Amino acid sequence: MTAPARQRHGSAALLTLARTRRDAFLRDLAELVGIDSGSYSPRGVNKVAGWTGRRLKRLGFSVERIRPAVSGGRQFGDILVARRRGSLTEAEGGARILLAAHMDTVFEDGTAAQRPFEVAGRLAHGPGVSDDKGGLLAGLTALEILDEAGIDEYAELTLLATPDEEIGSPVSRPHTEAVARGVDFAFALECARENGDVVTARKGVADFRLTVTGRAAHAGIEPERGANAALTAAHLVVRLQELNGRWEGVTINVGVVRAGTRSNIVCSEAQLAVEVRAASGTAIAAVRAAIEEAAARPCVDGTTVAVEQLDMCPPMEETPASGRLYEQARRIGADLGIELGRCSTGGVGDANLISGAGVPVLDGLGPVGGADHSPLEWLDIHTVPERTALLASMVATLGDRRGH
């Protein structure tokens, strides 16, 4: 009987394979960072998708490119979904594992030429080097290591690469949720935090629009006949901002206020754009109830307030299953010489959507990086072999559930 992959190829062996790829990793990273692939640059995103797809096809993955629908009058880059069947069926104990990364950056076309890839000491710099081209490449490298080691004891591996994560995944969200359904485990390839922590929880985000309706009147001749929507809106801003601190870890921000058309007209309509971030769906529901309560009691007679929830990105909540994923990663990390901590963050990503589909997910499985979305963005190249081996070891260990 053939020994399980986790016995034939330990973490140390995978680390040795990862170290042999360090120079190739840097060459590939320079090529990826040299491609402008902002969220609104479909040509650049598709260039990254083509580059990624060719690598995956060489590993025996079937690669699908999905052209998303136009959203808001804009065309976005393709969604890439690559799959490879393993040697185990699910009935035999094989797991379905998802690796998720994104191909878009926050930078405009021309940034790659203005700030080309460079290595200074142990740090690599360039647009998207950490968020998320370093993570995407770490995922591809881990898959190559597994292939070279002959590790295929899993039911299916899927790599998902999205074109619009940096703007909230407006076109890829339904595809991400569909891919995630039925998956046993998921690893999101955002880079590790600056201190090396992986991410076990992310806040969810809900966006609300409050529309205040009043009554117009001449502000100089008969202001008493009006009902000032702007005044109601102003009081609502104060009430909503005062909700901060009521629930631990919950933030409420009135980010946009619009009211009125002319100074000599009593304002008849106003709008507030409100963002809520919280670590649990229960907390977001509690904030919505508080917003609706405030809206039901406008301070100006004759005004009314309508509340709409425009969008909801579910929180990535830490669960017992995701906690076990972290503990497995921590044990493997110790074998590799990594003291692996964990953290939660207020930022959202595709891991939120995967978690919302009911899948245990661990985020921050890329190399260590930082200063994302800024000209100082960096990736610690010395962490690449260990973090790549960690990811490969997680797949090798969890892909075969016999004996777990």
TrEMBL record:
Q: Which UniProt keywords apply?
A: Hydrolase, Metal-binding, Zinc
Is Protein transport among the key words of this record?
no
Residue intervals of the Peptidase M20 dimerisation domain: 200-300
Give the required cofactors. Answer: Zn(2+)
**Would the keyword Thylakoid be found if you checked this record's keyword annotation?**
no
Which Pfam families does the entry link to?
M20_dimer, Peptidase_M20
Q: Where is the signal peptide?
A: none
Alphabetical list of InterPro entries matching this protein = ArgE/DapE_CS, Bact_exopeptidase_dim_dom, Pept_M20_glutamate_carboxypep, Peptidase_M20, Peptidase_M20_dimer, Peptidase_M20A
UniProt name for this protein:
M20 family metallopeptidase
Per the UniProt record, the source organism is Streptomyces ovatisporus
